[in-house]
């Protein structure tokens, strides 16, 4: 199980120190939530902040675009050497083109699904993806409660991926904590995003290791 702490829950006045803390604490990725105030009713940070953090850490960047027009961010994210980028299927008209635009830049491509969005939206594009991000809260804010029906969605997605025989990872984002982490693992999650359960804990290394169990 890989853990991707979400910077959204960090102390924004001390970003570099916060990132260093989770890097030494055993994080596998840094999850970066880009919000535009349109696709989601909140505004977070964009490419300039991500670019500044690139100089402060060697952690692979996992960028979650909760924005309209996600294609407009790709050149900047390539400059930040993003390892993974996910876009919301609800935000794009041309998902196929978007996936190719990400992969052509040498970045792993992911499709993110809101809790209320059916897995059937992935029917055609699943084989093209490197990973799928299942939202287990409605995107826009950290610290929300995990939506239990996400577990069944993850299990169904895992079965679809297995039947394709492809190595497509499942990432889960929202309300992840040490209680639901084992259930998410059993359902088929490969990467857990964790905001408040990591940054809300004074001992980040211990919080990360509890999620890995
Ligand atoms: C929610 C974001 C999440 C968020 C998770 O819109 O996509 O990445 O930071 O925060 P927690 O873990 O606190 O639910
Ligand atoms: Zn996220």
Describe this structure as you would to a colleague.
By secondary structure, the protein is α/β, with parallel strands linked by helices. 32% of the residues lie in helices and 19% in strands. It is built from eight helices and eight strands, in the order E-H-E-H-E-H-E-H-E-E-H-E-H-E-H-H. The protein has helices spanning 15-24, 47-54, 74-79, 95-103, 150-164, 181-187, 196-199, 204-212; strands at residues 2-5, 30-35, 61-66, 84-88, 108-113, 131-135, 169-173, 191-194. An eight-stranded parallel beta sheet has the order 1-8-7-6-5-4-3-2. Helix 5 runs parallel beside helix 6 (181-187). The longest helix is centred in the last third of the chain and has 15 residues, at 150-164. The chain is globular, with a radius of gyration of 16 Å. The N and C termini lie close together (8 Å). The structure holds D-xylitol-5-phosphate and zinc ion. Residues 6, 8-9, 31, 33, 64, 137, 139-144, 173-176, 193-197 line the site of D-xylitol-5-phosphate. D-xylitol-5-phosphate is lined by residues 6, 8-9, 31, 33, 64, 137, 139-144, 173-176, 193-197.
């Amino acid at each position: 199980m890989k853990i991707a702490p979400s910077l959204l829950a960090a102390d924004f006045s001390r970003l570099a120190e916060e990132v260093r803390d989770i890097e030494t604490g055993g994080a596998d990725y840094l999850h970066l939530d880009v919000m535009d105030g349109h696709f989601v009713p909140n505004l977070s940070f964009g490419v300039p902040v991500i670019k500044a953090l690139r100089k402060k850490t060697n952690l692979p960047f996992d960028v979650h675009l909760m924005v309209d027009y996600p294609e407009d961010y790709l050149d900047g994210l390539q400059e930040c050497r993003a390892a993974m980028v996910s876009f919301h299927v609800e935000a794009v008209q041309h998902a196929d083109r978007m996936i190719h635009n990400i992969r052509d830049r040498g970045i792993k491509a992911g499709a993110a699904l809101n809790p209320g969005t059916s897995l059937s939206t992935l029917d055609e594009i699943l084989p093209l993806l490197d990973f799928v991000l299942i939202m287990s809260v409605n995107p826009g804010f950290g610290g929300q409660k995990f939506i239990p029906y996400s577990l069944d969605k993850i299990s169904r997605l895992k079965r679809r991926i297995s039947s394709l025989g492809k190595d497509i990872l499942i990432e889960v984002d929202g309300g992840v904590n040490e209680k639901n982490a084992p259930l998410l693992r059993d359902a088929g999650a490969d990467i857990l995003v964790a905001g408040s359960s990591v940054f809300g804990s004074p001992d980040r290394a211990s919080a990360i290791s509890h999620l890995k169990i």
